[in-house]
TrEMBL record:
Highest rank taxon of the organism: Eukaryota
Gene designation: Zer1
UniProt keyword list: Acetylation, Leucine-rich repeat, Repeat, Ubl conjugation pathway
Protein species of origin: Odontophorus gujanensis (marbled wood quail)
Identification of the protein by name: Protein zer-1 homolog
Gene3D superfamilies: Leucine-rich Repeat Variant, Ribonuclease Inhibitor
Domain Protein zer-1 homolog-like C-terminal, first and last residues per copy: 404-750
Domain Zer-1-like leucine-rich repeats region: 196-337
SUPFAM superfamilies: ARM repeat, RNI-like
GO cellular component: Cul2-RING ubiquitin ligase complex
Assigned protein family: Belongs to the zyg-11 family.
Subunit details: Interacts with the ELOC-ELOB/Elongin BC complex. Part of an E3 ubiquitin ligase complex including ZER1, CUL2 and Elongin BC.
Length: 751
């Protein structure tokens, strides 16, 4: 029943279903009185479409945080004349009594209710309306469905004193469910009499009683001629149970596995019991005995066991009782037993912990209903992916994604699953993964970050995101990933390692993206968050990666984005700049990042007056002589001053230092740089540089701009020559060569 993560393109049916669910009003429905969804009167949909709509809706509500559930969704399927339902799979808190009540007129053939804890005994009554058509029913983990609310007082005032009590319903049975063949009652609440409940069913084919403790299962023999599948996971067995099971001669699938950590079991599996099964259950194709302790040796002598090619032929079986099988089993569950490590196991598929194949089989078999087992199996996969190489990468990824989606609220699975994803998506496996699959990984990682503030999950998720090309691969979830990272960075108590990874990711996300993305992220509080981190580090007198990444992120997010530059100034960014400069005079990388950012601020004409103070101009002038990070700090300081000079002498509203003196220092700095310097900078556009060419008000700004272009196109011609041509730089340079005010060496360089 579980929907596996797939790697093939989506069908047209799936795409249309998804689109309609996300746009119900624009497609199938209209809003009545601005609140209730109603189906358009001319819409008639067969069960193939309606089933998919309902089942996909449940999936979306569960796994897509952006998708908004609709209060009245299930009422769209209340009239079988316009919408037909046949096979419905509902899960968890998404479903309430009134939802099931809404579809009671439908002729359901299959109804799976998995872990629907909000359903009460009202829904038992609704089930009766499906009794004449239902063939397959699961109430797995619906722990409140046999409880009804009893109001002892019955009067209004008394209700306040005595809130409703929950009372177990004892009189419900499957009377009248004449077609029911498949039934799952896993994790049924204690106190319900299973025998009485089931007695009216005449021909059960499959029964799941996982996690239910029954001392007497003699009643099962009433279906000995029809029962083909029986699951008694985590039932405490005894000799009586075994004798009853041996009489169910039609069984093809038997599962008596257990979670060996959950509680103490008296029962031990013996050679005699396995012999009994093999002799009596001649149709058996699938057997699960995971988690059992073997009381006596069921294996053949060691010498013989190791001989020959690995075989699945029963005659060569290393497990002695299975030598009596007529043919190999399709499936044999041996997870967390000693038997899975034997050489010859007579089954096509084995779950166990011996190798990757067995571990993947375990994850596949147990994910839906046994998260406690699945998390341990994923932990084994994590070790395989970390230490060896995964040979079935695609399958491993699909299984882990499916488990994480299915158990969004299970901490163990989120921790082990997110750790396994980190190793399964790293660069050595990169070529084997499609865009679709990698996107699914990103989705479940973000789900994990959203649901868990827990340090291990957050760290694993952030580390996994580092395996992707950023920003390209995260573009389709751009807003969401930024919101989640900023959320992590805004928490008052922070884990150092997570902080470092999150800042690194934030920086990468705003590097090389469109301005509208940067503006959107700026509005989310990005600038403020980075400045707070810088403030914190300053207070601790620490200049570490977090400090450097934060300045680098501010440099990236202010690139050609005036709104973000303004935010930087409004939130006392300049004050922090001066304090960092003073506190960390030797930190070259830091100086480069800070000046790169101020270069962006200086490009915005309206903000330049705020940089026009004696203190700032003196600092920029002094940094012209800096040898930090090659020429970068000096180059950026000169860039800031070039934009300020471009506003002309009348904008120079300070007495000290003099404009001419600063101009002189700028010329000296530019002449000291090596024209063939390799650069630590990345231009997406030359526009801010080119605007300094066609002007006579500040020849030194013109010279800085020409030097910058000359250096970039000569050191990186393949990247920057096309950019210069595309942005119309050639005619601007030609015109400048003719200008009387331009300096001779500037013209030489331009030529």
């Amino acid at each position: 029943a579980l929907k596996m993560a797939s790697d093939s393109p989506e069908s047209l049916m799936t795409l249309c279903t998804d689109f309609c669910l996300r746009n119900l009003e624009g497609t199938l429905c209209y809003l009545l009185d601005n609140e209730t969804l109603r189906l358009h009167p001319d819409i008639f949909l067969p069960s193939e479409i309606c089933d998919k709509l309902v089942n996909e809706y449940v999936e979306l509500v569960k796994t897509d945080s952006i998708f908004e559930p609709h209060e009245s969704f299930f009422t769209l399927f209340s009239d079988p004349r316009s919408t037909r339902l046949a096979r419905v799979h509902l899960r968890e808190q998404i479903v309430q009594d009134q939802d099931l009540e809404a579809i009671r007129k439908q002729d359901l053939v299959e109804l799976y209710l998995t872990n629907c804890e909000k359903l009460t005994a009202k829904s038992l009554q609704t089930l009766v309306s499906f009794s004449h058509t239902l063939i397959s029913l699961s109430l797995f983990g619906c722990c409140n469905i046999f409880y009804e609310e009893e109001n002892p007082g019955g009067c209004e005032d008394d209700c306040l004193v005595n809130p409703t009590r929950q009372v177990l319903v004892k009189d419900f049975t499957f009377e009248g469910f004449s077609r029911l063949r498949f039934l799952n009652l896993g994790r049924l609440i204690e106190g319900v009499n299973v025998e009485t409940l089931l007695r009216p069913l005449t021909s059960l084919a499959a029964l799941d009683l996982s996690g239910i403790q029954l001392n007497d299962v003699g009643f099962l023999t009433q279906w000995k001629d029809s029962l083909v599948s029986l699951v008694l996971y985590n039932m405490d067995l005894s000799e009586e149970h075994i004798q009853v099971i041996a009489q169910l001669h039609k069984l093809r699938h038997l599962d008596i596995s257990r979670d060996h950590l959950s509680s103490y079991y008296k029962f031990k599996l013996t050679r005699r019991v396995l012999n009994l099964f093999v002799e009596n259950l001649v149709n058996l194709t699938s057997l699960d005995i995971s988690g059992h302790t073997m009381l006596e040796n069921c294996t053949i002598p060691n010498m013989e066991e190791k001989m020959g090619q690995t075989s699945i032929e029963p005659a060569k079986s290393s497990i002695a009782p299975f030598r009596g099988l007529k043919r190999p089993l399709q499936f044999l569950g041996l997870f967390e037993t000693s038997l899975c490590r034997l050489t010859h196991i007579p089954a096509y598929k084995v779950s166990g912990d011996k190798n990757e194949e067995q571990v993947l089989n375990a994850i596949e078999a147990y994910t839906e209903h046994r998260p406690e087992i699945t998390s341990r199996a994923i932990n084994l996969l994590f070790d395989i992916a970390r230490i060896e190489r995964c040979s079935q990468l695609l399958r491993a990824l699909q299984l882990v994604i499916t488990a994480l989606k299915c158990h969004k609220d299970d901490k163990n699975i989120q921790v082990t699953g997110s750790a396994a994803l980190f190793y399964l998506t790293n660069s050595e496996y990169r070529t084997e993964q499609s865009i679709k699959l990698r996107r699914q990984v990103i989705q479940v990682v973000l789900n994990g970050m959203e649901s868990y503030q827990e340090v291990t999950v957050q760290r694993n998720c952030c580390l996994t995101l580092c395996n992707f090309s950023i920003p390209e691969e995260l573009e389709f979830q751009y807003r969401r990933v930024n919101e989640l990272l900023l959320n992590i960075l805004n928490q008052s108590r922070q884990d150092e390692s997570i902080q470092r990874i999150a800042v690194h990711l934030c920086n990468a996300l705003v590097c090389q993206v469109d301005n509208d993305h940067k503006e959107a992220v700026g509005k989310m509080g990005f600038v403020m968050t980075m400045l707070k981190l810088i403030q914190k580090k300053l207070a601790d007198k620490t200049c570490d990666q977090v400090m450097e990444f934060s300045w680098s992120a501010l440099w990236n997010i202010t690139d050609e984005t005036p709104d973000n530059c303004e935010m930087f100034l409004n939130y006392s960014g300049m004050k922090l700049f001066l304090e960092c400069l003073k506190e960390f005079p030797e930190k070259q990388e830091l100086h480069r990042n800070m000046l790169g950012l101020l270069g962006n601020v200086a490009e915005v004409r309206e903000l330049r007056p705020q940089l026009m103070t004696s203190q700032f101009i003196s600092v920029f002038s002094n940094l012209l002589e800096s040898k930090a990070d090659g020429i970068e700090v000096s180059y950026n300081a000169c860039g800031v001053l070039s934009h300020i000079m471009f506003d002309g002498p009348e904008a120079w509203g300070i007495c000290e230092p003099h404009r001419e003196e600063v101009v002189k220092r700028m010329w000296a700095a530019i002449q000291s740089w090596d024209i063939n310097s390799r650069r630590n900078i990345n231009y997406r556009s030359f526009e801010p540089i080119l605007r300094l060419l066609p002007q006579g008000i500040s020849p030194v700004s013109q010279h800085w701009a020409t030097w910058a272009l000359y250096n970039l196109v000569s050191v990186y011609p393949d990247k920057y020559c096309p950019l210069l041509i595309k942005e119309g730089g050639i005619p601007l340079l030609k015109d400048m060569i003719k200008m009387a005010s331009a300096q001779q060496e500037t013209k030489e360089m331009a030529r």
